């Protein structure tokens, strides 16, 4: 086997292992919290038209993220294992899209693909909610994958504009893909639109003076993306929900307060990634003779870093964004950091050793984290399954008021939202209400596990 085929075989093996790892954690993540609320609603839809009608009602009264929510409704109408399979595929596709957006890498660069996965697993924003939890994954993982998929296709087309085949097909399909990408997530879709406009601006600037540089698909793609974005942010439900949120400050003080909260959120979510990216950039500065050379070699990384910053601070328009709203920005930051990693030249042995050492250390951390968290997730999954069987039995018996055990303590892990989404002793707690509605009880109460004797 020659070197090229060996590299391809190793790369494909890495992709398969990545898919297997995320699939296991998907299987070990039970339905919880909003899955139950939406699941109960979806069960009454009866057909795909019913699901669309439900989503239209949500568009008019609560949220404009219709693409992601419709995906969620479709999966909630199926067995959870279907979601587990497709969610694992989408996660791998997201990692591959990140990989494809890295310039200057080697062909079948397993090290780069490995780094992408490590950074997402170890530093992905609220990974348990944005990647593994069904409702959260459809909103954030799937949304980010759709957005980055569109950016990847558009970037590929721009880079191959001189010999792009089937331009008519691109002209028709890009706006469709663009509408989906623009209609996913407010700040991430906005960041994606900004990226496309900057790419198109750079393309036109570099080819200024040439005739016929603008092709129809270059316009229809962003136009579709903008259309989807406007449909999302102008949803009547957004304005209704916005009126329900209250802030401590108003006017300029509200903006200052939001700005400070964003800075603190960036620190809490991205400090380690930013430190790694900064150190890599400093190394590149040491290797290059001028800032012009740095900008030339690092243009892609700098651009993604700018998009990350814009995506984060776009949340200044939101009174109180959820922590998981930063997931898409984190994806953009991962691209920037990996690009800086690739741009560090390996001519000197010390820098080659530093890059290999970084990969080795992250792999070691990931190994222990995955094994430990996997064991805890299996325990949490077992208890959720025992509870589900018990609740189904009580529902068949026609029980009206049901008591179930809380999770055992000491199994908490960053890869499971099981404890945050667990029931409480109070039957009026919103999670308890979700369980009661899902199974058709009047109330569901919780008791500490040590006081439970039924099973």
Automatic annotation (TrEMBL):
Keyword Lipid biosynthesis among record annotations: no
Record carries keyword Transmembrane: yes
InterPro entries reported for this sequence: DUF6056 (IPR045691)
Bilayer-spanning residue ranges: 9-28, 81-100, 112-133, 139-157, 164-183, 189-205, 217-239, 259-282, 302-319, 325-342, 354-371
Organism: Eisenbergiella tayi
Domain of life of the source: Bacteria
Keywords: Membrane, Transmembrane, Transmembrane helix
UniProt name for this protein: Glycosyltransferase RgtA/B/C/D-like domain-containing protein
